[in-house]
Amino acid sequence: MAKLSAVYCTDRHGIIGLRGENTNYYQPINCKLDKRWFIQLTKGKTVLMGANTARALVEETSKLLPNRKNIVLTTNRALASLLEDIAVATGCDLEIWSSLEPLESYEGAEDEIVVIGGVHILNQLHDKIDTWYVTEFDCDVTTHRACYYRDSDPDPFFFPNIGWTADNFIQEGFERVAYSAFSDVDEFTNLPVTGYFVEYKLV
User: Fold this and answer.
1) Where are the alpha helices (DSSP H) in the chain?
2) From CA 48, how far away is CA 4, in angstroms rounded?
3) pLDDT tops 60 at residue 156
4) Separation CA 15–CA 26 (nearest Å)
């Protein structure tokens, strides 16, 4: 099986995304430095994402991720057809998987596949991922209200197994091997945000 890594961002309590009545999915904080780090980590690689992540991506940008092979896990034929049309129109590399079974015999077994969300895929592949790239925002999105309440009734997605939780818990068996602080501005709220780009590796 190909080497698996994952990239995501979180607040200090493990919230990695919000779902509201007017949107399918969005991450709680958006900043330019985090996007730049994401590009650095994924460019030229294969990225694996679920249906909600793919849908949010094309709703926001009208395309899939360029300069990467995009693998989307979905059984929704309408979504798959839409993504295939977008891939053809924009020249993006796309594979549609209806399950994670192809991962076991993936042709690019020597390459790295970067899992970019959402939370369901992260949970399904949790035990198979040996490197986690985490943007740890030094905030609590429940009090970062201008962002948290973009919709009237947001539903937070929690993924507290890596990185920060309320108790600063780090998953057993992983070691923090890289750590870099940053300061930026949330693009949705224009509020200042600080945080850390962190790499965890299985030891």
Assistant:
1) 32-42, 51-61, 77-90, 119-124, 145-148
2) 10
3) no
4) 11
DSSP 62: S
- DSSP code at position 49: E
Determine the straight-line distance between the first and last CA of the chain, rounded to whole angstroms: 19
Whether 150 shows a pLDDT value over 60: the answer reads: no
Euclidean distance between CA atoms 141 and 27, whole angstroms: 10
CA 8 to chain CA centroid, nearest Å: 4
Range with lowest mean pLDDT among 21-35, 110-124, 136-150: 136-150
Q: What is the pLDDT of residues 173-189, one digit of tens each?
A: 788 889 899 999 988 77
Dump pLDDT digits (tens) for 60-97. 889 999 999 999 999 999 999 999 999 999 999 999 99
DSSP for 94-149, please give it: EEEESSSGGGGG-TTTTSEEEEEE-HHHHHHTGGG--EEEEEEESS-TTT-HHHHT
pLDDT digit string, tens, across residues 108-133: 666 789 999 887 888 888 889 999 99
- Sort strands 192-202 and 155-158 into parallel, antiparallel or unpaired: unpaired
Q: Is the dihedral of CA 81, 85, 86, 90 positive or negative?
A: positive
Give 89-93's long-range contacts (Cβ < 8 A, gap of 24+). Answer: 90/63, 90/64, 90/66, 91/66, 92/63, 92/64, 92/65, 92/66, 93/68, 93/69
> Is-contact 35 44, C-beta < 8 A?
no
**pTM of the model as a whole:** 0.85
